[in-house]
Amino acid sequence: MSMKRRQFLILSTLSGLGLAIFAKLFRSQTAQSSNSKSTDTTNLASEPAASTLADTPSNPTGEKPLLRFVSVADTGTGATGQYAVATAMSRHQQLNPYDLVILAGDNIYNNGEIEKIGAVFERPYQALLQQGVKFQACLGNHDIRTDNGDPQVSYSGFNMPGRYYTFRRGDVQFFALDTNGNADWNAQLPWLEEELSRSDAPWKIVFGHHQIYSSGHYGLNQPFVQTLTPLFKKYGVQLYINGHDHHYERSKVINGTTYLICGAGAGTRPVGNSEWTAHSAEQLSFAAYEVYRDRIIISGIGTDNQVFDQGIIRLESA
Questions:
Q1: Cα radius of gyration (the chain)
Q2: Does the structure show a pLDDT above 70 at 199?
Q3: What does the pLDDT look like over 94-139, one tens digit per residue?
Q4: How far does CA 197 lie from the centroid of its chain?
Q5: How many domains is the chain partitioned into structurally?
Q6: What integer best gives the mean pLDDT of the chain?
Q7: Does the residue 27 lie in any domain?
Q8: Interval 54-105: pLDDT, tens
Q9: DSSP assignment of 44-57, as one string?
Q10: Angle at CA of residue 139, ends 150 and 308, nearest 5°
Q11: CATH number of the domain that 99 lies in?
Q12: Could you tell me which residue ranges the Calcineurin-like phosphoesterase domain spans (predicted)?
């Protein structure tokens, strides 16, 4: 048994005290601006990236996707950058209709004040909301600064039945996490394992606010590498989506999972490259996904409406 797996089994069977220690470790880790890039990245693989759709046709046979959706994070500023990304998201929706957005936290800057919802959500995404596009949100670290994020959980436009939850769209099951340091890990980790074990969806996608593998400001998140990634591997989670770091980064496949950072929804910070990186960019952007029976095509799209990265996740059992 590997050290990481042994650590996870210990953590998952500990009492609430043990999980409180984990939460303390996580809070300590996210308080740092660590750029550590050393890790065991066994089984790294990736499809090559493409600079534009024209360079590498993503769907030359004309096959229709089972599902289209997009993801974006760290959006809630109400400033020019957010509006630029929102406009690009709307343009993409006109050309490639979708009705789902994964909103991966820090939905309201700076302190999660729900009274700002018009300026930082309803007006920037008005065109998408009018088209019936549904946003599924999770809580970021800025969101919990006011009433621990409860007003956002209650806000109908974020479609959050709880602080963590799951929903299914056809062949895809999504699992939303509260990745904040004060989350109820004692309940959330067993819930996640139970829901993953029960799922018969061919595609399993987990999303939360905080990074796991990142080449940006916050770097590698060791507590989550130890506690979450063994679950992803055990139950075949193909994709983890997050924000927190304000850049775009698509990882190589790490033990069956691709890690996608889409935190450049309103502003950017510098990003480097790590051994796990397939593509990274300090660029205002969102990520778009086309789900097929045997693959998911991921596209990084900038405010110029151009695809600057493209990768493919293959379904192992297909």
A1: 18
A2: yes
A3: 999 999 999 999 999 999 999 999 999 999 999 999 999 999 999 9
A4: 21
A5: 1
A6: 87
A7: no
A8: 233 455 568 999 999 999 999 999 999 999 999 999 999 999 999 999 999 9
A9: -B-PPP-SSTTTS-
A10: 155
A11: 3.60.21.10
A12: 68-248
Q: Is residue 19 part of a domain?
A: no
pLDDT at 244 over 70: yes
Provide DSSP, 143-212.
GGGTGGGHHHHH-GGG--SSSSEEEEETTEEEEE---STTS-HHHHHHHHHHHHHH---SEEEEE-SS-S
CA 177 – CA 67 distance, rounded (Å): 22
Spatial CA neighbour of 205 closest among 37, 71, 115: 71
The structure tokens listed for 177 are: 């996490």
Helix ranges, the chain (H): 3-13, 16-30, 80-95, 117, 126-130, 150-154, 185-198, 222-227, 229-235
178-196: average pLDDT: 97
**What backbone phi and psi angles, to 5 degrees, belong to 17?**
-65, -40
Per-residue pLDDT tens for 264-312? 999 999 999 999 999 999 999 999 999 999 999 999 999 999 999 999 9
Encoded amino acid at 179, one letter: T
Residue 222 lies in a domain: yes
Range of the domain at 264: 64-314
* CB contact burial 46-84 (16+ within 10 A = b; e otherwise): bbebbeeeeeeebeeeeeebbbbbbbbbbbbbbeebbbb
pLDDT at position 24 is 52
Cα angle: 90, vertex 260, 18; to 5 degrees: 125
CA–CA gap between residue 139 and residue 172 (Å, rounded):
21
310: which residues sit within 8 A by CB, 6+ positions away? 49, 50, 53, 56, 58, 297, 298, 299, 300
* Residue 152 belongs to a domain: yes
